[in-house]
Design a protein that fits this description.
two-stranded antiparallel ribbon, TIM Barrel, N-acylneuraminate-9-phosphate synthase activity, 348 residues, Pseudaminic acid synthase, Type Iii Antifreeze Protein Isoform Hplc 12, 8-stranded parallel β-sheet, alpha/beta, single chain, SAF_PseI/NeuA/NeuB, 31% helix, Aldolase_TIM, transferase
């Protein structure tokens, strides 16, 4: 069991839902604070930011590999530097955003992208840290975060089992066992067919960590499925409206969808239950409506039971239907009206 702030995370509690603001504030602090309000209304557990500047995440170069040219990339036509300049959250906004979250009772933390961001976030006393998929191979950053002693959430996008082993070992070598791995597909948006959620229970067993999902698919279906496979943390990008645009808006949830995510993942968690056969306590009253054997015609003492005068019908107060072949051909020892449940006491 891992605890972030006042929230316990584990399979004994409802899923921990993280609303990722990312760059969907569109460089408006007012919009950022409004997003916090909307996340709180949706019922999430935590709000997350990303803490970097263009210069801490890439170089001020706009050609070659620093320019996004792949046709399938959501951000084609921009340099990395200009993209991150558009997407980053000004560091001077963090405290105001975190304070607004606290007013709503939300936990608030961030993904640092270099060691200076960790130092800055420590001044704000964040309760946890998130390592983004593209940084899960940044072992110095993972070690730096692990040394804070706070829970460490690591997205696993693109990482091989060996790379994840290195990341988990790096955190544990610093004495930090509070590790949550998030299954992640680092495409934007991702597709359900490319989500490979079967990895979640395998990863839990392989690394011995708590498991979750960082989900870039549209809708709530993939997240709900992940919960049934053992995900206890769900992270989703969100925005006020996809129509309003924004750097991540194309694959972000709108407020009503975020609320649905909270509700449906909790329902999925509730449905898992335990291994159980036989009627639940709530089903006991329904037992009387199962099929059983009934007298289907008025009979006199000594009449022989036949396929015409014994029926397999609802309700379930007669003999179980498995005795049908056994009772056919037997005589009854007293009169019986149509609708009488067949019992051993009626048989000679």
């Amino acid at each position: 069991m891992i605890k972030i702030g006042n929230k316990e995370i584990g399979r004994h509690t409802k899923p921990f839902i993280i609303a990722e603001m990312s760059g969907n504030h569109n460089h408006s602090l007012e919009r950022a604070l409004h997003l916090v309000d909307l996340a709180a209304e949706a019922g999430v557990d935590a709000l997350k930011l990303q803490t970097y500047t263009p210069d801490t995440i890439t170089l001020d170069v706009h050609t070659g590999e620093f320019f996004i040219s792949h046709d399938s990339n959501l951000w084609k036509g921009q340099s990395l530097y200009n993209l991150y300049k558009e997407a980053y959250t000004p560091w001077e906004w963090h405290e105001a955003i975190f304070n607004r979250a606290k007013e709503h009772g939300l936990l608030a933390f961030s993904s640092p992208f270099d060691e200076t961001a960790v130092d800055f976030l420590e001044t704000l006393n964040v309760p946890a840290y998130k390592i983004a998929s593209f940084e899960n191979v940044s072992i110095p950053l993972i070690r730096k975060v692990a040394r804070t002693g706070k829970p460490l959430i690591i997205s696993t996008g693109m990482a091989t089992a060996a790379e994840l082993d290195e990341a988990v070992r790096a955190a544990r070598d610093e004495g930090n066992e509070q590790i949550i791995l998030l299954k992640c597909t680092s495409t934007y948006p991702a597709t359900p067919a490319n989500s490979n959620l079967a990895t979640i229970p395998h990863m839990r067993e392989l690394f011995g960590t708590e498991m979750g999902l960082s989900d870039h698919t549209m809708g709530v279906g993939v997240a709900v499925a992940a919960v049934t496979l053992g995900a206890t943390v769900i992270e989703k990008h969100f925005t006020t409206s996809r129509e309003e645009g924004g750097v991540d808006s194309a694959f972000s949830m709108e407020p009503h969808e975020l609320k649905m995510l909270v509700e449906e993942t909790e329902r999925a968690w509730q449905s898992i239950g335990r291994i159980k056969y036989g009627p639940t306590e709530a089903e006991i009253a329904s037992l009387e409506h199962r099929r059983s054997l009934y007298i289907a015609q008025d009979l006199k003492e000594g009449d022989i039971l036949t396929k015409e005068n014994v029926r397999d019908v609802r309700p379930g107060l007669g003999l179980p239907t498995k005795y049908y072949d056994l009772v056919i051909g037997k005589a009854i020892k007293k009169d019986a009206q149509k609708g009488t449940p067949l019992s051993w006491d009626l048989l000679l």
